[in-house]
Design goal:
Blueprint lengths: L19 E3 L2 E5 L3 E6 L7 E7 L6 H6 L6 E2 L14 E4 L9 E11 L2 E10 L4 E10 L4 E10 L5 E14 L4 E6 L7 E6 L3 E6 L13 E5 L11 E6 L5 E7 L4 E8 L6 E3 L4 E3 L3 E6 L2 H17 L10 E3 L1 H4 L5 H13 L4 E4 L30 H11 L3 E6 L3 E3 L3 H5 L20 E3 L5 H17 L5 E4 L21 H19 L4 E4 L17 E3 L6 H11 L8 E6 L12 H8 L3 E5 L7 H23 L1 E6 L7 E7 L5 E8 L21 E7 L19 E4 H6 L12 E8 L1
Parallel strand pairs: 22-23, 22-31, 23-24, 24-27, 27-28, 28-29, 29-30, 30-31
Antiparallel strand pairs: 1-2, 2-3, 3-4, 4-5, 6-11, 7-8, 8-9, 9-10, 10-20, 10-21, 11-18, 11-19, 12-13, 12-15, 14-17, 15-16, 16-21, 17-18, 25-26, 32-33, 33-34, 34-37, 35-36, 35-37
Helix pairs in contact: 4-5, 7-8, 9-10
Length: about 725
Amino acid sequence: MKNLFLSAFLCICALPAFAVIEGNNILISTPNTSMLLNGKQGEVLRFAYYGDKVEPGMINSIKGGQLSLNDEAYPVFGVNAENEPALQVTHADGNMSLDLIIESISQSAVTNAELTKIVLKDKVYPFVVTLNYKAYKNSDVIECWSEFTNNEKKAVTLYKFASAFLPVRLDDIWLSHLNGAWASEAYLTEEALSPGIKILSNRDGVRNTLGGNPSFMLSLDGKPSEGTGRVIGGALAYSGNYKIMFDISNRSRLKVFAGINEDASQYILEPKETFTTPELALTYSKEGKGGVSRSFHDYARNGKLHNGLNNRDILLNSWEGVYFNVNQEGMDQMMKDFSAMGGELFVMDDGWFGDKYPRDNDKSSLGDWVIAKKKLPQGVEGLLASAKKYGIKFGIWIEPEMCNSVSELYEKHPDWIIRQNNREPQMGRGGTQLVLDLSNPKVQDFVFGVVDGLMTNYPDLYYIKWDANMTLANYGSNYLPMNKQSHLYIEFHKGLRNVLERIRAKYPKLVMQACASGGGRANYGLLPYFEEFWGSDNTDALQRMQIQWGESQFYPANAIASHVSANKNHQTQREVPLKLRFDVAMTGRLGMEIQPKDMTEADKIFAKNAIATYKSIRPVIQQGDQYRLVSPYEKQPFSSLMYVSKDKSRAVFFSYKLEHFVNQYIPRLKMNGLNPDKMYKVTEINVELGRDNAPGRSRNRINNQVVSGKQLMNEGIEVSFGGQYSSVVFELNAQ
């Protein structure tokens, strides 16, 4: 039975897709998984099972066997005060207890999913908790979230308010999660969970994935594997402070709590007010971490990522090419050179704005979103004309949530920034940067107006890079009342979401990138409004392998912006071949972060060939299933991964040489995800240039051979690399 069913665990929210309510059983299913809850009106809601898909006739065998957990589905503080609660409140009379029973259960069809709502009500106080379970039909994901409604006559204070609570039957459980810092985001960490408490949290206030990520995987059968074993995946769809806690307080349960970080965020819920938590997306797979990742990738592309089924353009961003030294002639030249290499989109980064205070460095001008006419006398119109002349699209950089103390905006509206009234504000980047108070509707109007003004004045603007380069320091709001200052972390992100919803309602086709000091906003709270996120300010190919490997645990390739940069790399000073830089960047949304005029003629030819190659394989990489094969974290002399089209007719295989020794042994590399019954022609692509800058020959014997999918997966292939930091890419086409 253990191999047939996943060990059960509890979630405050569940998943519907094909739901059945029968007696006191609530069975909620996605295409390949099921969750079973128990309870009826007047009873406590309990959690029984989550795992492989269950048919209604199997319910009794689960409940009668050892698979049923029978835990309280959403533990609250008060009547039971011994255990950690998912929800803790204080009523107006000082009572801190809750005692919840089921009031009603309802189900309804929503877009590509089925929604189950279970309303719980306190036995004494008119306080209502609604648990929501949204089961998707086009991915094996269940979104879980809670709603709290205060029907009391006075305010109730929320001190803990988890989106989801999840008990897991204790076994040899390993936790996989992401951590890091600026320029080293999304590093994968894997550890066995032991007795005690492990917390993943963030208190930045603005950028919640710079140092970690609101996501996790739990491998239930010991040390994590890419292709085998039962794995639970979770991702909190929130852009603000989060807390995910793993509590092993006894020998039979791992208890998982996920939601908004309640530190300094107690919330006063007024009468008749409802507070809604962010969704926790849950998935389960028997195909190891890779199965969980592919489920999240489908979840993203099928609706959780803006325009997720669209392939992304190949772009050149101006930042590392010129930094703040933006001018009309330079932008025109970069567009001309990039267009000649086959590029599709040019993005002008920081340095283009400011009238009274021109943006020549990071010390001024944020908030003054007008053209710096000395730099750009022809304005955005001139830049759009250049883009049209060279047959490419044009985009622009903004940082609309921020301002500098040296700016016209700050001079006019000093009350718009986040700060304490009786203290001098701590400044951020450049010694002058400050965060605007998005809890204030006037500030929300201003931020919306930045985008609306650009799009109204320049309707041909195609792309916006939206940055955010400062933590939420100086915690205090001139807008929020004094008794609700603790709402600021939450209201900031509520305001940001309101702005983005307005933008998307008016400009659904505008392409936007979420950037925040690099990869600081890679989360499912913001991705519904953005096509992609910037993976990291670190563009070094070797370090990007690890960063993008980590990001791919939860996010698909077309959401991860990855750029080819200069040699020497601007962050690490490392020198690696241009081919490796392209081959790494190709595993995400390919772009360039370089000054084309500094490239050699040979490099331009290679880049042109590589861009044409990427265009041909782009649908497979951006829309296909990813299989991570050999991890760059495993200290092997190489790493590899591949992408397979949904119909398994095409695939692209990447492998990178990380160490170089004389007479070095490289074991056969096994592929995955292919149809074992199909024959595939294997062709090496993106090869290095040979004589006269013509494409060189492959050194791999398998090149142009036809091999069965079964052999490629079971026996593998021998890969012949070149010198240090070499790389190989194969395209596979079913015959």
